[in-house]
Design goal:
Blueprint: H1 13-32, E1 36-37, E2 43-45, H2 46-52, H3 58-62, E3 66-69, E4 73-77, H4 82-91, E5 101-110, E6 122-131, H5 136-153, E7 158-164, H6 168-182, H7 191-199, H8 210-216, H9 228-243, E8 249-250, E9 262-270, E10 278-284, H10 288-291, E11 299-305, H11 306-315, E12 327-332, H12 334-349, E13 354-356, H13 363-373, E14 377-382, H14 383-387, E15 390-395, E16 400-405, H15 409-416
Parallel strand pairs: 1-5, 7-8, 12-13, 12-14
Antiparallel strand pairs: 2-4, 3-4, 5-6, 6-11, 7-9, 9-10, 10-11, 14-15, 15-16
Helix pairs in contact: 5-9
The structure holds adenosine monophosphate (AMP).
Adenosine monophosphate binds next to strand 6, strand 10, strand 11 and helix 11.
């Protein structure tokens, strides 16, 4: 038997309704905030990610599914969504249509990671990107979307962590200060952190290793290196969040994994999740559009893991499937069954979620199926009733059963307000 690959999984029918519900809510929510959906291809030129995300990041250096296509072009299954969205923004000159372009997406991503709960090789993210404005209003709006969407789903125990990593120039001086602080301790660092010490020392702050966390307690603070403009920007973001009553905690060690961030960075975690507790991450990325060949365009966005949201909802017990059937038809005898098929066809055209038995089972088996379907109304038709132009209708909500004229069925159902 051929099985699915490690780190991938099927969304089975008793699970897919949850995805549909989340997607429907996402589309509604985003239209309230005035964001429009964008969909980009599943694969892109590898260069888009190595340039856009950064050669030194885990994603690019270790996790991409890359191949040489036709022996000529280096292609990659998309491991993140901001770079493709920015590529499309530049390619289609979306910035010319309006000063701010507000986009959202929900899509599958691919990373060759070690699979575990909440960490797959094919997974899904939704997110937003607001391109074209350097102002803190955009940061605050994007953070509000991330936070309020999770609240609207019913996810509890949210923690919004906020930081600013400044703009290019102050980050360079901070990197130097951090390196200076860490240099007497390089031998105590893990292999990963030693590598990061050379390539991107800021990323050492992401460490989950206990003795490194302790070592970093006395490390210089990035907030002390912010320029005056960076500081003003950050305090305005906080003021706007306070005004919207969005609770956050400052986390000066949070730098996020990707190279393209500038100024605001944020992350939302939920204690409903286990060790993989990050639901969403984002921030401002004022240099990315330019790096990918567009005009200098400030931007801010976030991406949230859909599987993680569903796990969080599971943990807090928000997983009851709404009934998918209004009416179940039970037919006894050949003529009644055929008449039932016509009847259900008409009911379906009127918009009733209706079902019947496709495998010619006994009445008992059909009744069992009807119960399982969660239908409120049972229609029971025998050959004799058919001859009399009648049908039995049972309301499972109050167990009332009656025989009515078939011509009255439509009216009768209408009154029940299914
Ligand atoms: P990132 O693009 O790495 O900033 O991740 C953003 C969000 O995507 C995280 O907060 C997680 O919720 C989710 N995520 C990242 N990697 C994975 C993965 N391998 N499997 C499932 N969800 C993931």
């Amino acid at each position: 038997m051929i099985r699915s690959l490690k780190g991938t999984y099927d969304i089975l029918p008793d699970e897919s309704w949850r995805w549909q519900a989340l997607e429907a809510q996402l589309h509604d929510f985003m239209s309230i905030y005035g964001y429009k959906e964008i969909r980009t291809p599943a694969f892109e030129k590898t260069e888009l990610f190595s340039r856009g995300v950064g050669e030194e990041t885990d994603i690019v250096s270790k996790e991409m599914y890359t191949w040489l296509d036709g022996g000529k072009t280096n292609l990659t299954l998309k491991p993140e969504l901001t770079a493709p969205v920015v590529r499309a923004y530049i390619q289609h000159n979306l910035g010319a249509l309006s000063p701010v372009t507000k986009l959202y997406y929900m899509d599958a991503l691919f990373r060759r990671e070690r699979p575990q709960k909440g960490r797959q090789r094919q997974f899904h993210q939704f997110g937003v990107e607001a391109l074209g404005t350097p102002f803190p209003e955009a940061d605050a709006e994007v953070i509000a979307i991330a936070y309020e969407f999770m609240v609207s789903l019913g996810i509890t125990n949210l923690k919004l962590k906020l930081n600013s990593i400044g703009s290019g120039q102050c980050r360079d001086s901070y990197k130097d200060a951090l390196k200076e602080y860490l240099s007497p301790h390089v031998q105590e660092l893990s292999e990963t952190s030693r590598l990061r010490f050379e390539t991107n020392p800021l990323r050492i702050l992401d460490t989950k290793i206990e003795h490194e966390i302790v070592l970093l307690v006395k490390a210089p603070d990035i907030l002390d290196f912010l320029t005056e403009e960076d500081e003003t920007h950050f305090s305005e973001v906080r003021e706007l969040l306070d005004g919207m009553k969005i609770p956050y905690v400052l986390d000066k060690r949070m730098v996020r994994g990707l190279d393209y961030y500038t100024r605001t960075t944020f992350e939302i975690t939920s204690s409903a999740l286990g060790s993989q507790d990050a639901l969403c991450g984002g921030g401002r990325y004022d240099k990315l559009v330019e790096t990918l060949g567009g005009k200098s365009t400030p931007a801010v966005g976030f991406a949230a893991g859909v599987e993680r949201l569903l796990i969080a909802l599971d943990e807090i017990g928000k997983t009851e499937e709404p009934s998918k059937t209004d009416i179940y038809f039970v037919g006894l005898g050949d003529q009644a069954r055929k008449a039932g098929i016509k009847l259900v066809h008409d009911l379906r055209k009127q918009g009733y979620k209706s079902n019947y038995d496709l495998v010619r089972r006994s009445m008992k088996a059909q009744m069992r199926e009807a119960n399982k379907s969660g239908a409120r109304i049972l229609l029971i038709l025998g050959d004799q009733e058919l001859e009399n132009n009648q049908i039995q209708i049972k309301d499972l909500e109050n167990s009332q059963q009656m025989t009515i004229n078939l011509d009255e069925l439509k009216n009768h159902l209408y009154k029940l307000e299914l």
